[in-house]
Amino acid sequence: MISQISAPRLKGHRFPRSIISYAVWAYYRFSLSLRDVEDLLAERGIVVSYEAIRAWVGKFGPHIAKRVRATRPRPTDKWHLDEVVIMINGVQHWLWRAVDSNGEVLDILVQTRRNARAAKRFISRLIARWGEPRVIVTDKLRSYCAALRQLGLNVDHRAHKGLNNRIEGSHRPTRKREKIQGRFKSARQAQRFLCAHDETANLFRPRRHKMTASRYRQSLVAAFERWNDCAKSMAA
Fold it and tell me: How many helices (H) and strands (E) does the chain have?
């Protein structure tokens, strides 16, 4: 993904777009710290501080993720919703997440509540972005029932913990990154990071166990092309 360092620089930055997008990609794609990404670039002869990488990630990560999301195909009509607790500065928050039947993350939302109002806000956000699904699968939290009733959605709601294994696994990368980062610093920082992190995971972590080797390589090439196309719109 990295071209020569002599390539045209991004306005206002010492390095070209290709190097900045590579650093952002590596940080979100793998369970790496900022200093790990700094070492990866140093091995390639690119001397940049982890603080500069932090600035790149904060500035360009959400932008690229937004562009990737805009070019995504429409998700399946069966959604799985779940919420998991995360601690931010000693205060309990709830991370609401939705995935489709293929395991691709549709959206996340960090909130301080786990009630009907919070569930309604999250589901409304999903509907506004993706339209109304055919099936919604949740655990037995009654807030989902109340929220769906208030929204008046004509969907098949299946509330059963055993049916929601599809989304349980999607929380694991979040827990891993949360540990590496020493917990999230604020709800806003968690929201921005996880939106970009999950969108990158959607793009570069296809259901490999259902693919042949050649098909997986083709999907990886397509993913890199799509990432680079989205990174071209980065502006200073």
Answer: 9, 5
Please, which residues bridge with residue 138 across strands? 159
Instruction: List pLDDT tens digits, range 14-46.
Output: 888 899 999 999 999 998 999 999 999 999 999
Q: How far apart, in whole angstroms, are the C-alpha atoms of residue 216 and residue 210? A: 9
Superfamily of the domain at 78-203: Ribonuclease H-like superfamily/Ribonuclease H (3.30.420.10)
Between the alpha carbon of residue 74 and those of residues 102, 128, 129, 133, the distances in Å are 12, 13, 10, 11
* pTM of the full structure: 0.85
CA 2 to chain centre: 23
User: Residue 159 and residue 98: Cα distance in Å, rounded?
Assistant: 14
Amino acid letter, residue 106: L
Instruction: Give residue limits of the domains in the chain.
Output: 17-71+206-231, 78-203
**Structural tokens at position 17:** 């777009």
